[in-house]
Amino acid sequence: MGNVNRMKSSLANSEWAIEARGLIKHFGDNRAVDGVDLNVRAGTIYGVLGPNGAGKTTTIRMLATLLRADAGSARIFGYDIVKDPHIVRQLIGVTGQYASVDESLSATENLIIFSRLLGLGRTEARNKAAELLEEFGLSEAAKRPLKNFSGGMRRRLDLAASLIAQPPLIFLDEPTTGLDPRTRNQMWDTIRRLVDTGSTVLLTTQYLQEVDELADRLAVIDHGRVVAEGTVDELKASVGTSSLHLNIQNPQEIIVAREIVEQILKVKTTVTQDIGKITAPMSNVDAVTDLLIALRQKDIQLDEFSVQKPTLDEVFLTITGNEVKEDVPKDFKGSEQVEGERV
Ligand SMILES: Nc1ncnc2c1ncn2[C@@H]1O[C@H](COP(=O)(O)OP(=O)(O)O)[C@@H](O)[C@H]1O
Ligand SMILES: [Mg+2]
C-alpha cells in the first residue's frame, strides 16, 4: 500500500483524471465504441449519458483496463492504460466488479474480506466495514447473508465495497438504474461526498435528471459516439429554455405544420414517429401567438399544444435527431438527419 499512497499523493497536481482519444471497440461488425474522446478534470463528477447499447459500459471497461481497445489511447491521471495498466488499476474503482461476493456470508463479512484483501489491518477492516454499512443504510441488514439482500441493497453494498480504499477515480456504471427514489437520493449524496473528499467520479446514466443533479460536465453518447459535450446548462441551452409540443389532428399535414413551426420559431423541429408529435426548442414564448395564428391561417387543426421545460429525453432527441434505437448514418449532425428520414 505504501507505493499506492505515494502515487496517490503525487496525483494531487494532476489536472486530468481521464484523457481519452479516439477509443474504438468492435464486437464483430458492431462498432460498440466508435471514436470516443473524453476529458475529465480531476475532482469533478463527469456524466456519460446515453441510452441502452450506446457504448457506455464498453467505454468504461476500456478505461478501467478490463477490455482492450481496438484503437485509440487513454491516460488515467497521466498513466497510459496500455503501458501502465498496473498503476491505472491502483487508481480506480469500478462498481460491478464485486458482483461475485460470497452469497452465504453477511454484508459485514464481505466488506471485511475486501478490506483485508486491500491490506487493511483486522481492526481497521472491521471499523471500515461498520462505517460503510452505516453510511449506506445497511447497518440493520449487516448480519444477514447476502442471498437475502434486495437489488437496491446489493447495489449499495457494491458501491460500499468499491469505496473501501476510496480510489482517486471511481467509475459508476448506471449506479441508480432501477433504484427506488429514496435509495437513489442516498446514492446521490454518497457520490457528492466522494467528490467532496477528493475523488473524481465518472458516472454513466440514462437519466438527464441524474447528470443535472450531479455532473459538472457531461458527454452525450449514442451509437458509440460522443454527440454532445459540455455543462448541463450548455446542453439545455442548446435545446432552448422551454420546449413546444404540438399534436396535430391530421397526420398528413405534419410536413406543413413543421415548416410553419420552423419558420416562425426559427429552429429545427423533431417529430416523434409513433404519435406524430412535433417538438421544438423555444426561447421566446411570445412567438406562440404568431405560431397559433399561422397554423389557423393554414387550417391546421390541433389536438394538443403545450410549452414545457425540456426533459433530458428531449435534449437527447434534439441532439441526436433520432429516437435511440434506430441505426442512423454516422455522419449526421444535430437534428438535420431527421429531415430526410422521417418526413
Ligand atoms: N461482450 C460483448 N460482445 C458482443 N457485443 C457486445 C459486448 N458488450 C457490448 N456489446 C454490444 O456493444 C454495444 C454497446 O454496449 P454497451 O457498452 O454495453 O452499451 P451501454 O452500456 O451504453 O448500454 C451494444 O450493441 C452491445 O450489444
Ligand atoms: Mg451499460
From TrEMBL:
<keyword id="KW-0547">Nucleotide-binding</keyword>
<dbReference type="InterPro" id="IPR050763">
    <property type="entry name" value="ABC_transporter_ATP-binding"/>
</dbReference>
<dbReference type="GO" id="GO:0005524">
    <property type="term" value="F:ATP binding"/>
</dbReference>
<dbReference type="Pfam" id="PF13732">
    <property type="entry name" value="DrrA1-3_C"/>
</dbReference>
<dbReference type="InterPro" id="IPR003593">
    <property type="entry name" value="AAA+_ATPase"/>
</dbReference>
<protein>
    <submittedName>
        <fullName>ATP-binding cassette domain-containing protein</fullName>
    </submittedName>
</protein>
<keyword id="KW-1278">Translocase</keyword>
<keyword id="KW-1003">Cell membrane</keyword>
<dbReference type="InterPro" id="IPR003439">
    <property type="entry name" value="ABC_transporter-like_ATP-bd"/>
</dbReference>
<keyword id="KW-0813">Transport</keyword>
<feature type="domain" description="ABC transporter">
    <location>
        <begin position="18"/>
        <end position="248"/>
    </location>
</feature>
<dbReference type="Pfam" id="PF00005">
    <property type="entry name" value="ABC_tran"/>
</dbReference>
<keyword id="KW-0472">Membrane</keyword>
<comment type="similarity">
    <text>Belongs to the ABC transporter superfamily. Drug exporter-1 (DrugE1) (TC 3.A.1.105) family.</text>
</comment>
<dbReference type="InterPro" id="IPR025302">
    <property type="entry name" value="DrrA1/2-like_C"/>
</dbReference>
<dbReference type="InterPro" id="IPR027417">
    <property type="entry name" value="P-loop_NTPase"/>
</dbReference>
<dbReference type="InterPro" id="IPR017871">
    <property type="entry name" value="ABC_transporter-like_CS"/>
</dbReference>
<dbReference type="InterPro" id="IPR005894">
    <property type="entry name" value="DrrA"/>
</dbReference>
<keyword id="KW-0067">ATP-binding</keyword>
